[in-house]
Specification:
heterodimer, A: about 130 residues, alpha/beta, five-stranded parallel beta sheet, B: about 650 residues, alpha+beta, five-stranded antiparallel beta sheet, 20 helices, 22 strands, about 50% helix
Chain lengths: ~130, ~650
């Protein structure tokens, strides 16, 4: 787990079993002014959520032990206000209905387009901004 | 000329003997004195005449009695001329009676001569008649027994007589045939188109036998063939017609020709090549396919060594068949054609021996296997591609991750480059200012550079740029590896066996499949030191891949989407002259009812699109091709273990089969 960014910044939790992906996502979001937390396993992500609330969770779908969708479902119980986004190389394999049922805000492709990723996160955070 | 003279022993015989000597020097006179002696002599067949003196009294009567019905004539010599005596003698069977008068010698000689001449005539006539009787009987037997229909025709063409076979063949009795024109007795087509009439006409005009095969229908309407012969019997215009039914003989002869043609046809049109060779290995027969496969015509007399290998010994199948009497069935071999081209063939050879067991040579039947080999390669390749298709998802995932971060990193590096460009622009300004030496401008430029460096976080940018490059390099290296592995895997095998490291084959395969199963499977490897195995490494990899993919799927099926990790255990070891590879999983297992079928082609329990049903059958044939075995043990719900046993000594040399 790691955290950075200005105090009072929006907190984004990125989950992927591939460290290089985390590293690249961090690069992409570097200028967005978020506090970025990363987790390499769903279990680690859940531990982080035990410790502190986050504003947005961006999770990979295919991970050992637990799929991204399942992680987001569990995350919703612990941190209902967090916007939940799924990122996967197989977007067509994820059933839309399940996404909606889980209240997942967006499904992002992997590899991702930098601009699209940033826009999607901004929109998701804007919508989830309290008040 | 032999004459028996019977007269009383005390009587002078001279007068009688002298009279008979007048008949000539060749006359043999036998003197006897009683009936017993006389009859004994007279009945031996060589006696021409008996002269009996009346003076013998009752003995004379016995002689006459004894020779009355058969035997030579008896001339009675009476002491005096008396009609009474003469009549008595004639009554008793005497041929003549001569009185002992003055003229006695001359009369007796004349009478004797006359009686002898008559007797001889009678005797000859009897012999001729007897001979004729014998001949007639023989003739009757022949005519009755001969298996041919005989008819004798008179000059007008009317039947004089027929034999029983004629009656049987043409269903007419001898009596009713008599006097009938032949046209009434024989079927018309046999006479006319069959040519019997023409045959008879020719026979009537010349000596000797006329013959032809006459065809027509018999009385029952079935087609018949006759060996017809006709001959003039004498000058009176009578003809003998002989009709031997050769329908069956012709049918058999035709059947033999048909069978020969049939066999020839089969052999020539056989989709297999057939060669017959003599004990020296020279070709004595070759069918069309043999000519095609061997790529030559007029093979007769050529040595099979021109095409078939003679060394090494284990490949010289035909030679071994010829020399050792071994049999091979469906053995694989290669032949070399005159143009140097190699052909894989499947060949069966057997020694050729006659009924006494004498070696005549060998027969070889073979097929060109190049197409089959090619098809086998295609099937193998197709199966491999299908397996690769299954792998693709896992591999794509493996490629997608590095692609993902390389892609993102490139974006970011472009941004970093922009930052660095801006910094460089300001550094250029500073350099120009420094060159001009204007201190104020130098300070301003340095301040601007410092400000921008802080703004873009230059230290971070430089450090992270390097890190992004490093990570991207590493990612592209990973992609390169995966692609290389895949390419490695989809490569064609060399056509010859090569000495390969089975551990390496198993490990490199496991590494590829691992990309697909690493999220759900723990892989254990227990490799032992192994000698190199002469094998087709790509084919073995395919076996291993099929087993690994199956293990993975069995685990996936058992654990469900989020279950515990499964376990796949790979082990290799040398066991005697074999290399043993085991692939165990703790997946769903195989139901007992499926265990016996899992190596059958197209047997699958997977959903459509998940498997071709060829995977394990391909494994089976690959392992078989290596002379090895593959077997499976499984507990439903507990897992399965596949064991592949490969002999270190290559087993691809054909083995002879026992003689039947």
């Amino acid at each position: 787990m790691s955290a950075e960014g200005a105090r009072g910044a929006r907190v984004v939790l990125v989950v992927d079993d591939e460290a290089r992906i985390l590293s690249a996502l961090r690069r992409t979001l570097r200028r967005e002014g978020y506090e970025i937390l990363t987790a390499e396993t769903p279990a680690e992500a859940l531990r982080i959520l035990e410790e502190r609330p986050v504003d947005l969770i961006l999770s990979d779908q295919k991970m050992p032990g637990m799929s991204g969708l399942e992680l987001l479902a569990r995350a919703a119980e612990r941190c209902p206000s967090a916007a939940r986004l799924l990122i996967t190389g197989w977007t067509e394999e994820v059933p839309q209905r399940q996404l909606e049922a889980l209240g997942v805000r967006a499904l992002l492709p992997k590899p991702w387009d930098d601009g699209e990723l940033k826009r999607t996160l901004r929109q998701a955070l804007g919508a989830s901004r309290p008040g | 000329m032999r004459i028996v003279v019977a007269l009383p022993s005390g009587q002078d015989a001279e007068a009688t003997l002298a009279a008979l000597r007048r008949l000539g020097r060749e006359v043999e006179l036998v003197l006897v004195h009683d009936a017993t002696q006389c009859l004994g002599q007279a009945r031996d067949g060589s006696v021409d005449l008996v002269v009996a003196d009346r003076a013998l009294g009752e003995e004379t009567d016995r002689i006459l009695e004894g020779l009355r019905s058969e035997g030579p004539p008896v001339v009675v010599v009476a002491g005096e001329a008396s009609d009474e005596v003469a009549l008595d003698a004639f009554r008793r069977g005497a041929a003549d009676c001569v009185a002992a008068s003055d003229d006695f010698p001359r009369v007796l000689a004349i009478v004797a001569l006359e009686q002898i001449r008559r007797w001889r005539a009678v005797r000859e006539r009897g012999a001729v008649e007897r001979r004729l009787q014998t001949l007639e009987r023989l003739n009757d037997v022949i005519v009755e027994a001969i298996p041919a229909a005989l008819a004798v025709l008179d000059a007008e063409g009317r039947v004089v007589g027929v034999n029983p076979e004629f009656s049987r063949t043409f269903e007419v009795s001898a009596e009713s045939a008599q006097g009938q024109p032949l046209e009434r007795l024989l079927p018309r087509d046999l006479l006319e188109s069959g040519g019997v009439i023409g045959l008879l006409a020719r026979a009537a005009l010349q000596r000797g036998v006329e013959a032809r095969v006459a065809r027509g229908v018999g009385p029952d309407g079935s087609p018949r063939a006759f060996d017809a012969r006709a001959r003039r019997l004498g000058d009176d215009g009578r003809l003998l017609l002989v009709l031997a039914d050769v329908t069956e003989r012709e049918r058999l002869a035709k059947r033999i020709v048909d069978l020969q043609r049939y066999t020839e046809n089969i052999i020539q049109n056989l989709n297999s090549a057939l060669l017959v060779v003599d004990v020296e290995g020279r070709i004595t027969f070759a069918n069309a396919m043999a000519e095609r496969i061997l790529g030559a015509t007029r093979l007769r007399g050529h040595s099979v060594a021109e095409w078939f290998p003679t060394t090494p010994r284990q490949s010289a199948l035909l030679v071994r068949t010829l020399e050792e009497g071994l049999r091979f069935r469906g053995a694989e071999a290669t032949i070399t054609r005159a143009d140097g081209q190699w052909l894989p063939i499947g060949v069966s050879c057997a020694p050729l021996v006659d009924a006494d067991g004498t070696k005549l040579g060998a027969v070889a039947v073979f097929q060109d296997l190049s197409e089959i080999k090619e098809l086998q390669r295609h099937v193998l390749q197709a199966e491999k591609m299908a397996s690769i298709g299954q792998l693709a998802a896992g591999v794509a995932h493996e490629i997608n991750n590095p692609m993902g971060f390389i892609h993102a990193n490139l974006f970011q590096m472009a941004e970093y480059l922009q930052d660095l460009r801006r910094l460089w622009d300001r550094a250029e300004l500073l350099r120009h200012a420094a060159a001009e030496g204007d201190l104020a401008r130098i300070r301003a430029a340095a301040a601007a550079l410092g400000e921008l460096a802080g703004e873009v976080d230059a230290d971070y940018v430089l450090a992270d740029f390097a890190k992004a490059v490093r990570e991207s390099q590493e990612g592209s290296e990973r992609i390169r590896h995966i692609v290389q592995d895949l390419r490695h895997f989809s490569r064609h095998d060399p056509s010859e066996r090569t000495f390969s490291d089975v551990n390496e084959c198993l490990d490199s395969t496991a590494n590829i499949v691992w990309t697909m199963m690493k999220h759900s499977v723990v892989l254990e490897k227990h490799y032992s030191q192994l000698p190199r195995l002469r094998c087709y490494p790509m084919q073995l990899k395919q076996v291993f891949m099929n087993l690994l993919v199956n293990a993975y799927q069995a685990i996936e099926e058992k654990r469900g989407p989020q279950g515990e990790h499964g376990r796949v255990r790979l082990a290799t070891q040398q066991r005697g002259g074999n290399v043993v590879i085991t692939v165990s999983d703790d997946g769903i297992g195989i139901p007992p009812e499926n265990l016996s079928r899992i190596f059958d082609p197209f047997f699958t329990t997977k959903e459509v699109g998940m498997g071709t049903g060829l995977g394990l059958s391909t494994c089976f044939s690959i392992v078989e091709r290596h002379g090895g075995t593959i077997r499976v043990e499984s507990q439903p719900g507990e897992g399965s273990t596949f064991e592949v046993v490969l002999p270190l000594a290559a087993q691809d040399e054909p083995r002879p089969e026992p003689a039947p």
